[in-house]
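Box 4.2: Ligand-aware structure prediction
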Amino acid sequence: MFLRICFLLALLAVVNRARAAQPAGEPVKLGFFMSITGRDASFGEAALRGARLAVDDLNATGGILGRPVELVVEDNRSVSGESATAAKKLLSRDKVVALIGECASARTLEAAPIAQAAGIPLVTPASTNPKVTAVGDCIFRVCFADPFQGTVLASYAWKNLGLRRAALLIDSTAPYSVGLAEVFAKTFLALGGDIVAAQKYSGDAKDFRAQLTAIRSTKADTIFLPGYYVAAGLVAQQARELGLRATLVGGDGFEAPQLLEIGGPALEGTVYSTHYSAESKDPASRRFVSAYQARHGSTPVGLAALTYDSVQLIADAARRAGTTERVALKKALAATRDFPGITGRTTLNEHRDAIKDAAIITVRGGQCVFVDSVRP
Ligand code: PHE
């Protein structure tokens, strides 16, 4: 009799575990909008891979509150205006419980007021401009913001690289670029450095020769380019062509597998900051890196890890709230403390921003090499 009861209990445990592993019922829909095609396609690809890995992991372990998770994907084609359209579609057509996106601050800034007006939480994996989370209490970010990133870069340029004369090359159409340049310049000046030029370009530019020629005459030892990987690769090449020897310094927008393809050897010595290093020894990060490698045959960039964490953060908040209802979900997200993720522990402060380390990367021997980690 006793044995039979034990057997039944064991059977029940097995059945229960199987049930937990097989979420059932109406799916919980998460809306995802990114630049999957177009100029910044590398960002969309990395983010989507991270999001899909997270959704698969969730669905293998009971989903969200026992329900399966569905990622509803919208491509904004890297075109301005399309993120607002995507956000509206995901909210009204798909009735998603949360939005994940964008990477570029300009595009998150399009969608954020729409999410805020609907009262639906939006989690950005990688938009670093301070204005993003300032839109309202429904907007969250799992990465550091540019007041930190800009300071880190200016200090690194000054102290570690010994640079003294910086020329700024700013995408005047991108809030990310304008904001990061401001913080960099302020810090660099305060340290005693000179800002010898401030040149402008606009997002889709392919030819930077006029700006670089002007910069050449200033004897700058630094080109600070708060832009994305396509611009970074082209600027590196054209600067080399024009005989400029200044060190190219940038932010997280440089990080993409395509950076090296576009810029080639001209990038040697370039320095930029990012959110994560796949070389991290943390067990969760190691598991993520091997799952990513098994699926895609390459090493994940920080954006993939941050997007993985964004999805898991929403699931964690829903679990704590016991519901995906918007007000409760928003409250639980705001209360996120010490959430263990791939990119470290996430604690959201009163501005709904995460405080995280920056990784410094340098291009050496045709590779992007992790050189340092900077604490807030
Ligand atoms: N931080 C950049 C922005 O706010 C976007 C970005 C993040 C790009 C991470 C690449 C990697 O616009």
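In the box above, the bound molecule is phenylalanine. Residues 268 and 363 are 5 Å apart (CA to CA).
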